[in-house]
Structure formats: C-alpha cells, structure tokens
Amino acid sequence: MHAMQYELTLPADYDTGIIRARVSRVGHRLDDWAGLGVKTYLLRERGVHGSPVSQYAPFYLWNTVEGMNAFLWGGPFQGLSDDFGRPAVRQWTGLAYEEGVAAGSPARFAVRRRRPVPDGAVYGKAMREAAEEAGRLAREDGAVLAAAAVDTSRWETVHFSLWEHAEFASVKADGDLFQVLHVSAPGRAALPGGRQW
Under DSSP, is residue 104 helix (H, G, I), strand (E, B) or coil? Predict the structure, then answer.
C-alpha cells in the first residue's frame, strides 16, 4: 500500500463551491481506476470545524505503484495542475490498513495527522506503534477505515481515518479534520489489511 496526498491552500475568500462543483463534475472518473484502493476528495474551510485555512487536499491509498503513476502521468493530475498550478505530492509507504467498525457506512469526514519520528527512536517500535494506532482508530465508534504510513525522507508518520460524523472524528482522532466530498474506492477490498511487514 502507498499513501499519497497533495494540498491546494485556497485564498481566505475563495468560493469553496467551485471545488464542490468540480468534484461533482469529475470525481467519478476514478471510481474504476486500476490500482487505486481509495481516493477521498477532501475539503477544509476556514472557520469551519476549527480549520485555520481553506484547502482542497485529496488523499489516496494505492494498491499499485503502476496505478499511482498512471494517475500522475496519465491525465487526471495534469488537469488539476493546469487549473490550479502544480502542487507538491507527498508520498508515504504503507504501515497498516484496517477496515473500521462502521465500514459499511458512508464516510463524511476524514482526519489526517502527521507526526515526526523522534530522533533516537527505535524504528521497529515506532512503526509498530503507528500500526497499532491505526488499529485503535478502526475500532472506535463511527470509524469507516484507518491507515498508517511513513515517509522515510522526512521521518514522518501519517495517520488517516474516515468517519461517519464530525463528532466521532473530532473526539476519537487527533489531527486535521476534513469534509469528504466524494470517495472513489475501486480497489478498497484489495487493500492489504493489518500490519504491512
């Protein structure tokens, strides 16, 4: 599993209805994308749910590098870059994936938490704890799914979880809260469950 995200930070007075309309228009294009586990079309709005910024920030869980590369080099990402400018694309290696206790429910909110791996950490212990946290999140009421991944170029872990309701997300998970505008999940069932090593 590979995790990927890019963020488009929008001007404070930006009409986020433009993003919502864009997702309504093009979101379905990845509903059957080969190699994609899950793509969540995420939005934060300044002043809503405590967000300090307005931001469009899709988050991906990929089953294959080929699928990810086809997306980045094969068209859809080019269109986004042409419209908004080329964003930095963050990538993490998967540590764990778990279906949540509310796996059959629609995801309305997402939480993303990035944390540095401390200097002097025992890597195996730190990665095991990150994987265990994904499992804990998945067992919480309202959790649709949870994943953990690591970027070893920055020594940073990321936890990503989907939730039925904002109150579940904001109480059970720590991090940036996003609204989920659409989910494309053609390969969700193929995402490897549990720890990834």
Answer: coil
The average pLDDT across 29-42 equals 98
- Please report the DSSP string for 39-66 in residue order: EEEEEE-TTSTT-SSEEE--EEEES-HH
| Dist. CA 132–CA 148, nearest whole Å | 9
**pLDDT tens column, 130-179:** 999 999 999 999 999 999 999 999 999 999 999 999 877 776 788 999 99
> What CATH number belongs to 2-190?
3.30.70.100
- The DSSP secondary-structure symbol of 71 reads H
pTM score of the predicted model: 0.96
What is the crossing angle of helices 76-84 and 65-73, to 10°?
Answer: 40
3-state SS assignment for residue 154:
coil
Q: Cβ(32)–Cβ(180) under 8 Å?
A: no
Residue 173: its pLDDT value, please? 83
Question: Which runs of consecutive H residues, i.e. helices, occur in 110-162?
Answer: 123-138
How many alpha carbons fall within 13 Å on the CB side of residue 6? 11
Cα–Cα distance for residue pair 140/168, rounded to 1 Å: 8
Say how many CA atoms lie within 13 Å of 190 toward its Cβ: 14
Within 8 A by CB and 6+ apart from 177, the residues are 44, 49, 50, 51, 109, 110, 111, 166, 169, 170
